[in-house]
Each structure stands twice: as structure tokens, then as C-alpha cells.
């Protein structure tokens, strides 16, 4: 399990690649965000990189607000679930994936 010492089994090369990719995405976002111009076209939401190859993001403002709210709620629920997994592993000293049949 990752929480019970399993991170030592992951290659440092993998973490270097993950860090490089995350840094590249952040730098790209900095380049496309223009903080000097406050026009309506230049205002972007955090994480809005214009990447939607399947055209899943709705076009109407009301549907966009509903999707953003759903994304926040799902993210919060996922954080609670991972916290529950961490507590479960801490108490039982057995990985969550090893406890499920």
C-alpha cells in the first residue's frame, strides 16, 4: 500500500517525469493567461486550458455553472473517500486494496 511504506517501491524517475509534466502544464497556463488585460475575453477560470477534445463542456452559462458545481462536489467527495482510506489503512495496518475481495 502506498500509505504504509509503498512509496519507496515507486521509481524516482517516475516522480521526476510527473513533476516535469505538471510543471510544463503550469508554465503553459501562465503563458496563456494574460493578467495585464482585464477584458472579458482574457478572464479565465483556474485550470481552463481550452482542452476539450470531446466537446463535453456545455455552451450555455447555466449548464456550465452546473457542471462546475458538480465537479467541485465530486472532488470534495473524492477527497473525503481518500481520507477514509488513509484512516482505514492507519487503523488496520492493511492496504485498502488488500481488504476488498
Question: What does this entry show, briefly?
Answer:
With 101 residues, the protein is mainly alpha-helical.
Structure description:
The chain is mainly α. The protein is built from 3 helices and no strands. It is flat, with a radius of gyration of 19 Å. The two termini are 16 Å apart. The mean pLDDT is 83.
List the helices and strands and how they pair.
Elements: H1 12-32, H2 61-92, H3 96-99
Structural class: mainly alpha
One letter per element, helices H and strands E, the order comes to HHH
Helix content percent band? 55-70%
Major beta-sheet overview: none
Descriptors:
mainly alpha, 0% strand, 101 residues, flat
Amino acid at each position: 500500500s502506498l500509505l504504509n511504506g509503498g512509496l519507496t517501491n515507486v521509481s524516482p524517475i517516475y516522480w521526476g517525469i510527473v513533476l516535469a509534466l505538471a510543471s510544463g502544464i503550469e508554465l503553459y497556463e501562465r503563458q496563456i493567461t494574460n493578467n495585464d488585460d482585464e477584458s472579458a475575453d482574457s478572464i479565465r477560470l483556474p485550470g481552463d486550458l481550452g482542452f476539450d477534445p470531446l466537446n463535453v463542456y456545455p455552451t450555455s452559462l447555466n449548464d456550465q455553472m452546473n457542471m462546475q458545481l458538480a465537479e467541485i462536489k465530486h472532488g470534495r467527495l473524492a477527497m473525503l473517500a481518500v481520507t477514509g482510506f488513509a484512516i482505514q489503512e492507519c487503523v488496520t495496518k492493511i492496504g485498502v486494496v488488500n481488504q476488498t475481495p
